[in-house]
Write a structure and sequence with these properties.
This protein has a two-stranded antiparallel sheet with strand order 1-2. 44% of the residues are buried. Helix 2 (27-43) packs across helix 4 and helix 7 packs antiparallel against helix 15. The protein starts with a helix and ends in a 5-residue tail after the last helix. It is an all-alpha fold. The radius of gyration is 21 Å and the shape is globular. Helix content is 71%, strand content 1%. The mean pLDDT is 93. The chain is built from 16 helices and 2 strands.
């Protein structure tokens, strides 16, 4: 990879946020392009051995193979089998992308960082203009799709994605800005972006901010207690799903006891309650890869009636029991791949968490912990675990963070 290639790599790594201004799903083709470029640069002009750490590689291979095997008892073995193969390609592309980022020379890494930060900051300025101008950029995006929403239309569903991606790419952007221009550039960048994220009023992106704000300073000054706290938290997260059915309050009970709970969160409790019940059918092997999406397409929509809220409003959502995915990656793993898949996925996250917090550089530890929490928040509350655009976004962020390891 030459100097121009490194700069282009940095520019492309910031583009997920820009793409999300129009349609977040567009990140998937960008990730595919980056994966193909990474593969090509490993083969030409000189063949390079991929820099892949064995534990991650073997666990990812095991997870993808188990996903493929599970398609044999899935709802649609052929279609779900191809879906599992796609997952394997996603993981391969991500590993090659991280390998490429870790193999840059000092000069290439510097050009990557500068291009990445400048592109990230420019896109953040565009989002700031959008917020200040009454969502004119978002309205232009809708117009390109032939939609012209009224003046009082809320763009919250779409703006959530760009806010989440702003948060996801903030840790590598902060480290890159610090490396190139010092804390005098990195701190203002982080504060301005955090303020903009809050202006989106997205619960998911706010969770990202809170997680990063807690994890980064603790990783910097107190890595060992944070390491063990994270390992304990991951252990509980992955151990609980098979025991939730019959032991968790229903969505109606939660609404009755906590009437201020947001309706989006109540909808998630409905999904988790149903998914926990279905996990009991095959707790060891799961229902097969992509079962959450299949259930969403096969189960009829139904009304869920809640008691009147204190202000007299009624909430009676009409929804599928699992609309496309479970909005919780751990529950999705248990539902689709059972204890085997959950075990492999849990070990992957344990290794990633431990590896990030064992770095000797405190800034690298802080960035790794912040990125981990920024990715976990949407994984546990919003996005499907195997959505192409989301998986691609996380890999791009990991590669951008990996590029900061080069002096």
């Amino acid at each position: 990879m030459n100097r121009w290639g490194a700069a282009l790599f940095g520019l492309l790594s910031a583009l997920p946020v820009l793409i999300a201004l129009h349609m977040a799903r567009g990140v998937a083709p960008l990730f595919s392009l980056l994966g193909i470029i990474a593969l090509a640069l490993h083969l030409w002009p000189l063949r390079q051995r991929p820099r892949l750490e064995a534990p991650y590689l073997w666990l990812m291979m095991g997870l993808c193979l188990w996903a493929l095997v599970s398609a044999l008892w899935a709802f649609d073995p052929v279609a779900n089998g191809f879906g599992a193969l796609r997952l394997g390609l996603l993981m391969l592309g991500g590993l090659l992308l991280v390998s490429l980022a870790g193999g840059m020379t000092v000069d290439q890494a510097r050009l990557f960082r500068r291009a990445f930060v400048l592109a990230y900051a420019s896109i953040a300025l565009l989002i700031a203009f959008d917020l200040a101008s009454g969502m004119q950029v978002m309205r232009a995006s809708y117009a390109l799709r032939g939609m012209f929403p009224p003046a009082d239309f809320s763009f919250s569903h779409d703006t959530k994605h760009r806010a989440v991606l702003l948060a996801l790419l903030l840790p590598p952007a902060f480290l890159a800005a610090k490396r190139e221009w010092g804390l005098k550039a990195a701190i203002p960048l982080a504060l301005i972006v955090a303020f903009m994220i809050q202006l989106h009023h997205s619960e998911t992106s706010l969770l990202c901010l809170i997680g990063m704000g807690v994890a980064a300073p603790l990783a910097f000054w107190r890595p060992k207690p944070l390491l063990w706290a994270g390992l304990l938290g991951l252990g509980l997260l992955f151990a609980l799903p098979p025991f939730l059915h019959g032991n968790m309050p229903t969505a109606r009970e939660i609404a009755r006891q906590f009437p201020d709970t947001s309706k989006s969160l109540l909808a998630r409790f409905i999904i988790w309650e149903y998914a926990a019940e279905r996990i009991q059918e095959r707790p060891l092997a799961g229902l097969g890869f992509d079962a959450a999406r299949e259930i969403g397409g096969r189960e009829p929509m139904r009304h869920y009636d809640f008691d009147p809220f204190p202000d007299g409003t009624l909430y009676r959502p009409l929804m599928e029991p699992i609309p496309l995915h479970t909005h919780n990656g751990v529950i999705q793993l248990w539902l689709e791949l059972g204890a085997v898949g959950a075990g492999l996925g849990g070990l992957l996250l344990v290794l990633a968490w431990r590896g990030g917090l064992r770095k000797t550089d405190p800034w690298q530890r802080a960035g790794s912990a912040a990125l981990f929490l920024a990715a976990m928040a949407p994984m546990l509350s919003s996005y499907g675990l195997f959505q192409n655009w989301w998986v691609g976004s996380v890999w791009i962020a990991i590669a951008a963070l990996r590029a900061q390891d080069t002096p």
